[in-house]
Amino acid sequence: MKHAYADIQSVGSFDRKERPVDPISKPSGPGEESGPKRPETDSPSRDNLMKRMRKVDPKQAEKYRQRTGE
Amino acid sequence: MNPVRLFGIETEYGIAREDSETADPVVESMELVRAYLDGHFTRRWDYRGEHPHEDQRGFRVTELAQDKEEDLFAEQDAHRPFSFHEMKSDLVLPNGARFYNDHTHPEYSTPECRTLKDIVAHDRAGERILWVAAQRRNEVLGGRVVQLYKNNTDFHGHSYGCHDNYLVSRTIDFDKLVRGLLPFLVSRQLIAGAGKVGREAQERGFTPGGFQISQRADFMETELSVDTMHNRPILNTRDEPHATREQYRRLHLILGDANMCEYATAMKIGTTRVVLDMIAEGFVPSFELASPVEAIQVFSQDPDLKAVVKRQQGGTISSLEIQREYIDQARRVLTTIDKETEWVLQEWEQVLHYLENDPLLLIGKIDWVTKRWLLETFVQDEGIGWDDPWLASLDLEYHNVDPERGLFCGLEAEGRTTNVSREDEIQQAMKHGPLDTRGGLRGLCVQRFGEDISSIQWEGVHFNGKNGKLHLDLLGHLEPVSVAHCRSLLERAKSPVDMIESMAAK
Asked: What is the ipTM of this complex?
């Protein structure tokens, strides 16, 4: 019997903004302008993240139990 | 010089049923894997290629530290109405990956990859495939109740792994491999640590407070061991090459954290591969650490990177200094530096520079820096202490693969992460294996002749033929040229018989 796998198209594209680096293109060195920027402390995205964090159940880790794996 | 470059990542995910405190983890993991199937499960994985008792140091152990616990679990699991192999529910996917239930954790093992671009895309593809399975399982359960975590701890003293694997020439003496790797591995967490609040000890609970660099450091108990679940080693000595034993070893590293940042995954694999190339060229570090196990924990508990540990030759050394020693030597030792290696070396230097001077520039690139920044911001905003249990919950949620809940997913959606893969590359990796490795060949066998497969594993595929079993041996397909030749035959063949006959004719 052939395994029929889930239709992975159904998951669609994830919401992510593309900012790829390419391991085989010329990288930028320390101090160059194309490098990463420090996060803005009062940006709208920070507010969104804090909202997401406040929704987390404070007792979630206390309830989370797993068996030992490898 | 090691002629073949191949690596892969195995990730055990944490799984939770939020609607039930009594859910059976064995059943939940099994059902999650099976949710990825439209048809019913048929066992095809061939366990004969697995030899967890063989040791690289040239002997075979009679038992592993976990054997007694495994026996106990087997006894507990015996009442269930399905067999051990049904419980494992091993699948080989059309992209050449293995997806199964390992020790009650859904585990995704990427197909073998040859490039950093591919390994990152396949690691991310694994997250997506598990999320697809969780969505399908949740449809059956009637709510978003199954949640998956790509992390390494339950904050109660239970750890599960993310193992990185590398094909290594057996001409390299194992003792030299150990000497060359140990200081690097102990300090690799600077790049690849996923960050963790609090401290743990193996099955002895959790102490809240503080932040450390690595999720796994608390669970490292010895330098070398064949064990993986107890007495965990910095360098696992399991001798299970999944390649021609006389020619190759598989370096099976179990000390690593599961990374959410694509950049961290690329650098974890990239820097380790560079160090292996250095060792193949004869590199030996100028020092040894007095106590590598103590060092990995001291470094982990020092996110300000000020700690030093003793060297066997006298004096002390910091984690940054260890990493610098490797980079400084790399350009002297390596006789060839290809584009990917050049990228790794330059990024490696840059990461250490930022860690020393301005770590916040690594947000979205290095997990522990990213998580520490998120938690510090939260602590300040909410006015809570570092021993508040809320922080362990936030730590856990950083690793949730649910795009609407996971904290890393939230950062990614806001464009705050540096990606190595494009979205279309991840989507492609969900469906197809790498074109240039035997992982892609394995996946192609599943795509083209899945219903004819009688058994399958890393080293080969058996097909049912009219006159008996047919065997496609993948042991010999490690080089790109060999893979390309086999791929062209597989793509043209009308049946497994046709393919095997074509290969024999060549």
From this structure: 0.93
The pTM for the full model equals: 0.95
Helix (H/G/I), strand (E/B), else coil: B324: helix
Q: Which residue from A minimizes the CA distance to B126? A: A8
How near does any CA of chain A get to the CA of B413, in Å?
A: 4
Q: What is the DSSP string of B77-122?
A: HTTSSS-HHHHH--EE-TTS-EEEEETTEEEEEPPPBSSHHHHHHH
Cβ atoms of B453 and B444 within 8 Å: the answer is no
Tokens standing for residue B16: 């939770």
Buried b (16+ CB within 10 A) or exposed e, A40-70: eeeeeebeebbebbeebeeebbeebebbbbb
Residue B422 contacts residue A20 (beta carbons within 8 Å): yes
Report residue A47 CA to chain centroid gap.
Answer: 16
- Centroid of chain to Cα B225: 18
For A9-45, how does the pLDDT look when each residue is reduced to its tens digit (9 = 90+)?
Answer: 555 456 676 666 777 654 444 334 456 677 676 666 7
Nearest CA in chain A to B339: A24
Amino acid letter, B153: T
Q: Which residues of B are catalytic?
A: 102
Specify whether the CB–CB gap between B429 and B118 falls below 8 A: yes
Identify the three-state secondary structure at position B337.
coil
In chain B, where are the structural domains located? 162-398, 437-505
B164 phi/psi in degrees, rounded to 5: -110, 140
Contact B117 A50 (CB under 8 A): no
Name residues whose C-beta falls within 8 Å of residue B148's C-beta, 6 or more positions apart in sequence: B13, B14, B15, B16, B32, B106, B130, B131, B134, B400, B401, B402
- Chain A residues with CB under 8 Å of B21 CB are 63
The two three-digit tokens of residue B318, written as one number: 């910091």
